[in-house]
């Protein structure tokens, strides 16, 4: 199995960003969706994103927000990718594509293949994103989509490897499973998650 793409989401402190990047995350996420314990504003995200090297993707996370608001927060923060957790249609995706962003479509629905709405990456998530609750990715009824897709929803250092092997996902995304309390990241769990996703034993650092 090749190394999976690993995104650590819901980061709010410079230290957590440095830990995730230093441990080998391929992407880091900043939540702009209102009502989350992880929500940051554009100015805070801009400072955090400025710490991230060019080879690591910065992602703004949105849920059901008007496209103008998504464009504004994305431009003000400088994040390179947009992750959409709503029921946006192809025109919405097209407008953001024209603005030059990488597009991540997040959904709990069955999707046959990545790219149907013009997205670059598909993210299959639980119905209640960011809740830490898993879904039935391990069941016989789940048919993985074609193309590049990320698995999220209730992943932890203890189950991420099994999840990757069971589903064949191209990558994984996590928030709750690397927190010591809701909205507060644990550097140790971030490192353990990345090591586990890669299939390497965790070493104390
Ligand atoms: O993290 C949030 O609070 C959030 C809020 C609104 C939309 C998406 C959100 N996070 C996404 O949810 C999954 C992580 O889920 P879990 O906590 O690991 O179960 C991931 O895709 C985040 O980007």
UniProtKB/TrEMBL annotation:
<feature type="domain" description="N-(5'phosphoribosyl) anthranilate isomerase (PRAI)">
    <location>
        <begin position="6"/>
        <end position="195"/>
    </location>
</feature>
<keyword id="KW-0057">Aromatic amino acid biosynthesis</keyword>
<keyword id="KW-0822">Tryptophan biosynthesis</keyword>
<dbReference type="GO" id="GO:0000162">
    <property type="term" value="P:L-tryptophan biosynthetic process"/>
</dbReference>
<keyword id="KW-0028">Amino-acid biosynthesis</keyword>
<dbReference type="InterPro" id="IPR011060">
    <property type="entry name" value="RibuloseP-bd_barrel"/>
</dbReference>
<dbReference type="Pfam" id="PF00697">
    <property type="entry name" value="PRAI"/>
</dbReference>
<keyword id="KW-0413">Isomerase</keyword>
<dbReference type="InterPro" id="IPR013785">
    <property type="entry name" value="Aldolase_TIM"/>
</dbReference>
<dbReference type="InterPro" id="IPR001240">
    <property type="entry name" value="PRAI_dom"/>
</dbReference>
<dbReference type="GO" id="GO:0004640">
    <property type="term" value="F:phosphoribosylanthranilate isomerase activity"/>
</dbReference>
<dbReference type="InterPro" id="IPR044643">
    <property type="entry name" value="TrpF_fam"/>
</dbReference>
<protein>
    <recommendedName>
        <fullName>N-(5'-phosphoribosyl)anthranilate isomerase</fullName>
        <ecNumber>5.3.1.24</ecNumber>
    </recommendedName>
</protein>
<comment type="similarity">
    <text>Belongs to the TrpF family.</text>
</comment>
<comment type="pathway">
    <text>Amino-acid biosynthesis; L-tryptophan biosynthesis; L-tryptophan from chorismate: step 3/5.</text>
</comment>
